[in-house]
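User: quick one, fold this
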Amino acid sequence: MIKALFINGSPRKQWNTAQLLQKALEGARDGGAETEMVNLYDRGMNYKGCMSCFACKVRGGRKGVCLFKDDLQPIMEKAVEADVLVCGSPVYCGYPTAGLRAFMERLIFPGVNYADFRHPVVLKPKHSATIFTMNCPNEAVYQANAYDILMDTNAKQLGMFGPTEIMYSFDTLQFNDYSRYDAEGINGDHKKQWHDTHFADDLNQAYNLGKRLVEECR
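Assistant:
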């Protein structure tokens, strides 16, 4: 059976990023995959980015997977074994969250082949995607802020494992009640209206993404 793993790099388990990942998971499940969601910001989850232990580069040792022992290591094993991998993150200060970036360091570096940089160490090819959610209103502003470089460059590293793509969800709703926060520079009414009229389309796109990735694995 095809295995599909979904990585939520947002601290919020029920908001935009999580909802889109859940829809992608449902699409993958309906496509016949065995699915699992991992929340990187689960309480008690203790891990860091690459620790430069170089265990993944030891001559004669196991290659292609991070071997550093902490709470992330079992998840790295699942990521390596997955046929489909979908990561999600909001934009924080122009980058994916620190949690997702740490995950990516631990996933990508073991595949960097010090013996032949042209050929990464890939234990199992996979189809992958990254879902980015953001306050940014549209793709033009996204690119004007160089997010296509800061964010997309990180996501495209998944291409070392096989075909990868990026889905964007713009102008997302950050709060249910904007009046509770010092956020006068944001039009909360517009955000709510946009969410009510457009977010369902993003959810549908995420569902189709998950289902299509599974179909492409067959």
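User: anything notable?
Assistant: The first strand starts at residue 3 and ends at 8.
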